[in-house]
């Protein structure tokens, strides 16, 4: 059976750059050049856990290991795992019957789980535990006859998975404009949930609009926006007012990376750009820039940030000050299906995903 791989854009071909002297001559910089490096940044526990799950599956089961959708939203991570034998597909019907498939960190709907069972696929569920929490809330609230207003981006894998838990009881609200127009049958039994990787500020704006229209709207028992998304936004909020330029390392389909660019601009950065790789940085961005803020989305390995710092150093931004706004020590156990295999094999090299990778 043939498979249709998930399309992953290739890194841009390195190009000839203007020299640091030419950039400096075009727009001299007043004052010393510096870099403000956000902390926390990069991998969160859920991403770390999911990537380890695929790596361990390849080690113990051998290639190929199929993965439904991108395991995490990062071009570098996906291409690196492909080189090791992972095959990324859009749907389970592209996976040969009886083969091993990993569900991505963003989660899947019950219909996807059933499809895998129907095809007798062996599965490893690498859904982030924080996303799983939202799924369980959706099921519980729907059973209690509440209607769910799911704040998130329609079409995003995480939203599709959560919506699929209770489609008859869920309405997706994409933005403030939709919050102003959405209609519900019973405004007395409403609760809101959210995609875990949204902007905290935008989510609260949407909730405020919804509550003005539906005063009995209930809050979830705990915040759905994940700790890593919140922490990375808090860090860039502190850096942005001081930054002439903010560079966010992350992929275009990474919601939390895209949000970091927007947050940087909202909180005072003069310019902000997202890149997958250092070679995508346009040196013209440095013209007249004294302070560069740098951060990365929650699915970005640190090596990509270090590549950006090396490029910045070539252009005179050698002084790096880490701006620490939180310490992260969250750890998640690997998926239960994989833990049993590792235990049987005596593999104790890595059983947790999270801080310290």
Automatic annotation (TrEMBL):
Per its record, the protein catalyses:
isopentenyl diphosphate + 2 oxidized [2Fe-2S]-[ferredoxin] + H2O = (2E)-4-hydroxy-3-methylbut-2-enyl diphosphate + 2 reduced [2Fe-2S]-[ferredoxin] + 2 H(+); dimethylallyl diphosphate + 2 oxidized [2Fe-2S]-[ferredoxin] + H2O = (2E)-4-hydroxy-3-methylbut-2-enyl diphosphate + 2 reduced [2Fe-2S]-[ferredoxin] + 2 H(+)
- Sorted alphabetically, which Gene3D superfamilies does this protein's record hold? 3.40.50.11270, 4-hydroxy-3-methylbut-2-enyl diphosphate reductase, catalytic domain
Its UniProt pathway annotation is: Isoprenoid biosynthesis; isopentenyl diphosphate biosynthesis via DXP pathway; isopentenyl diphosphate from 1-deoxy-D-xylulose 5-phosphate: step 6/6; Isoprenoid biosynthesis; dimethylallyl diphosphate biosynthesis; dimethylallyl diphosphate from (2E)-4-hydroxy-3-methylbutenyl diphosphate: step 1/1
Cite the cofactor comment.
Binds 1 [4Fe-4S] cluster per subunit.
CC cofactor: [4Fe-4S] cluster
Could you say which residues bind [4Fe-4S] cluster here?
A: 44, 128, 226
What keywords appear on the UniProt entry?
4Fe-4S, Iron, Iron-sulfur, Isoprene biosynthesis, Metal-binding, Oxidoreductase
Family matches, as CDD domains: lytB_ispH
Q: Which family does it belong to?
A: Belongs to the IspH family.
Alphabetized HAMAP family for the sequence: IspH
Q: What does this protein do?
A: Catalyzes the conversion of 1-hydroxy-2-methyl-2-(E)-butenyl 4-diphosphate (HMBPP) into a mixture of isopentenyl diphosphate (IPP) and dimethylallyl diphosphate (DMAPP). Acts in the terminal step of the DOXP/MEP pathway for isoprenoid precursor biosynthesis.
Supply the name of the protein. 4-hydroxy-3-methylbut-2-enyl diphosphate reductase
């Amino acid at each position: 059976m043939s498979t249709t791989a998930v399309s992953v854009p290739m890194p841009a071909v390195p190009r000839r750059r203007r020299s640091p002297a030419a950039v400096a001559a075009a727009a001299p910089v007043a004052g010393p050049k510096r870099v403000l490096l956000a902390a926390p940044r990069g991998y969160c526990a859920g991403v770390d856990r999911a990537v380890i799950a695929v790596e361990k599956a390849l080690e113990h089961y051998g290639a190929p290991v199929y993965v439904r959708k991108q395991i995490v939203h990062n071009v570098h991570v996906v291409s690196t795992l492909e080189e090791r034998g992972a095959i990324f597909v859009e749907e389970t019907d592209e996976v040969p019957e009886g083969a091993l498939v990993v569900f991505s960190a963003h989660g899947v709907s019950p219909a996807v789980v059933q499809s895998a069972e129907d095809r007798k696929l062996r599965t490893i569920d690498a859904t982030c535990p924080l996303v799983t929490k939202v799924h369980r809330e959706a099921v519980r609230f729907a059973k209690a006859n509440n209607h769910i207003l799911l704040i998130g981006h329609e079409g995003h894998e995480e939203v599709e998975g959560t919506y699929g838990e209770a489609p008859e009881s869920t309405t997706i609200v994409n933005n403030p404009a939709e919050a102003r127009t959405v209609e519900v049958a019973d405004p007395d039994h409403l609760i809101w949930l959210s995609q875990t990787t949204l902007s905290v500020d935008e989510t609260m704006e949407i909730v405020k609009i919804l509550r003005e229209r539906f005063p009995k709207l209930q809050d979830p028992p705990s915040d759905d926006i994940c700790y890593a998304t919140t922490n990375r936004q808090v860090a860039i909020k502190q850096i942005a007012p001081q930054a002439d330029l903010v560079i966010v390392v992350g992929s275009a389909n990474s919601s939390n990376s895209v949000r970091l660019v927007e947050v940087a601009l909202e909180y005072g950065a003069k310019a902000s750009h997202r890149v997958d790789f250092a070679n995508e940085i346009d040196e013209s961005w440095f013209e007249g820039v004294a302070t560069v803020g740098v951060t990365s989305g929650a699915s970005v390995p640190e090596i990509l940030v270090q590549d950006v710092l090396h490029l910045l150093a070539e252009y005179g931004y050698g002084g790096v000050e880490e701006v620490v706004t939180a310490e992260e020590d969250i750890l998640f156990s690997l998926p239960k299906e994989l833990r049993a295999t590792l235990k049987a094999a005596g593999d104790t090299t890595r059983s947790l995903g999270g801080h310290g990778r």
